[in-house]
Specification:
Blueprint (H helix, E strand, L loop, with lengths): L5 E7 L23 H13 L4 E5 L13 H6 L12 H6 L5 E7 L5 H14 L4 E6 L4 H6 L8 H21 L6 E4 L4 E3 L7 E4 L4 E4 L12 E4 L4 H10 L2 E4 L4 H17 L8 E11 L2 H12 L4 H12 L20 H6 L11 H9 L6 E5 H15 L3 E5 L5 H16 L12 H6 L25
Parallel strand pairs: 1-2, 1-13, 2-3, 3-4, 4-9, 9-10, 10-11, 11-12, 11-13
Antiparallel strand pairs: 5-6, 7-8
Helix pairs in contact: 4-6, 7-8, 10-12, 13-14
Length: 460
């Protein structure tokens, strides 16, 4: 029997996420992103459909590579305007009991202690349903907004990330022992000072001397996501990530990527099963194949080619307003290196003109777009999961919230009928639901060695 598939909804606290121009569709409600009810209703819909999580993307910066200006992004709502993703999680968590929330936060723009406190707070407020997508950023505009002259070089960003996450582990796992909080009213002791430890770090990029401000949350460390697929990013994911987000159109190539990632995890002293791998897919479904195809054709009338190129230019660092750059080399890209390689010379690109490039990204953001009835889509998802050794999918939307409503009403029952998707949630925290084990990180994870007051096997 095939293993159960995990499903995340993929969204962003903005108007135009993966499918550019769709905000113009009369049924699209993504422009309601700034209202609490919009997110609460989405969370309730996803929980009705037994989605495992809502994966929230984020960028701190504007897409201004295309034409050397943010004008296209602003005019066409290419992931701008965009609000903070962390602040919408508490009302969604209060409206649900099981849906988890994986949130993207760019560590390049964060100070270690305030960030550790925000994530611990969210883990407390969600009762252990929080994950962190570890990213290092790729937009020069974001770096400049954070007070930096320009974006730090790609590989150095991962060196900084290595140091940053180690500090976070020390705060989350090592600063407070499990029994530090006594709440002893008679003795007048809330916390035992002897069981709270100072984090002292003097590194190349950070100097920290502080105790964590939060008592241990249900998971301590949030479930760790990572999406880097460059050689440096893959190595980082193999050491640290519990969930990895991948993108690919070719099953054999994606299978090789997944196999390499799992092998690197084993080399790092972890188990191949310690990583859940999710692939980006956009699903357009309806009661029949014909209805789904008609819906897709309707959607395609609203896509924006220039918006798609502005998005891609930000991802790759290549100004696609200049046709001569199609087929140019991606060597030395300081943005998302795999995206640059996919659409330029030296990668897997089959695109020879701007129309071809734009069409590949405009609907679904560069991932596969599956169109069909629930049976057709279920066949495809099962094929991708089996052939590529995937654990699940991050499902992007074409129309908000219509895409997710269609998945809940049509696709989920079909997957459940086949035994490929759960009929009810397991109990426990996000980590317990995903891995069917305890709420804490495994002893073979790098964070485990920083725990205090807990016995960890030397060979773990």
């Amino acid at each position: 029997m095939a293993r159960e598939i995990l499903l995340n909804a993929f969204a962003m606290n903005c108007v135009g996420h993966q499918s550019q121009g769709m905000w113009r569709h009369p049924r699209d409600k993504s422009a309601d992103y700034k209202y609490t009810d919009h997110w609460v209703e989405l969370a309730r819909l996803l929980e009705r459909g037994k989605f495992d999580g809502l994966f929230l993307a984020d960028v701190v910066g504007v897409y201004d590579v295309y034409g050397g200006s943010p004008d296209t992004a602003l005019r066409e709502a290419v992931q701008v305007p965009t609000n903070d993703p962390l602040l919408i999680i508490p009302p969604m968590a209060q409206a649900t009991e099981n849906l988890a929330f994986a949130v993207t936060v760019n560590l390049s723009h964060e100070a270690p202690l305030p960030f550790a406190r925000r994530m611990s707070t969210l883990d407390h407020m969600t009762n252990g349903r929080i994950g962190w997508n570890v990213v290092t950023g790729y937009l020069d505009s974001g770096a400049k907004g954070a007070g930096q002259g320009k974006q730090v070089a790609h590989d150095i960003r991962y060196d900084i990330a290595e140091e940053f996450v180690t500090i976070q582990y020390d705060f989350w796992e090592g600063s407070w022992e499990d029994d530090a909080v006594r709440k002893d009213r008679e003795a007048g002791v809330f916390t035992d000072p002897a069981k709270v430890h100072r984090v002292s770090h003097d590194g190349e990029y950070f100097r920290v001397n502080a105790v964590h401000l939060c008592e241990p949350s249900p998971q301590r460390t949030p479930v760790l996501y990572q999406a880097g697929t460059s050689s440096k990013g893959t190595a980082f994911a193999a050491r640290h990530a519990e969930c990895v987000f991948v993108v690919g159109h070719n099953k054999s190539k994606l299978a090789a990527t997944v196999a390499n990632l799992r092998a690197l995890a084993v080399e790092a002293g972890r188990a191949a099963s310690d990583i859940k791998i999710f692939s980006l897919i956009t699903v357009i479904t309806a009661a029949t194949d014909e209805e789904a195809q008609a819906k897709a054709e309707d959607y395609r009338q609203y896509v924006s080619a220039s918006g798609a190129l502005a998005l891609l230019a930000g991802w790759t660092g290549i100004d696609f307003s200049k046709p001569e750059l199609v087929g140019a080399s991606a060597a030395g890209s300081n943005s998302i290196q795999t995206a640059a390689a996919a659409f330029t010379k030296g990668g897997a690109s089959e695109h020879q003109n701007l129309d071809s490039v734009a069409n590949s990204v405009a609907l679904g953001g560069g991932g596969p777009v599956l169109v069909g009835s629930a049976k057709t889509i279920a066949d495809e998802l099962e094929s991708w999961a089996t052939e590529c050794d995937l654990d699940g999918f991050n499902l992007a939307y074409a129309l908000m919230p219509e895409t997710f409503a269609d998945i809940v009403d049509h696709l989920v029952p079909e997957l459940q009928h086949r035994g490929l998707f759960k009929k009810d949630y397991a109990k426990g925290t996000y980590r317990e639901k995903l891995f069917k084990r305890g709420p804490r990180l495994e002893n073979n994870h790098p964070a485990a060695r920083l725990r205090k007051g807990v016995a960890v096997k030397a060979d773990a």
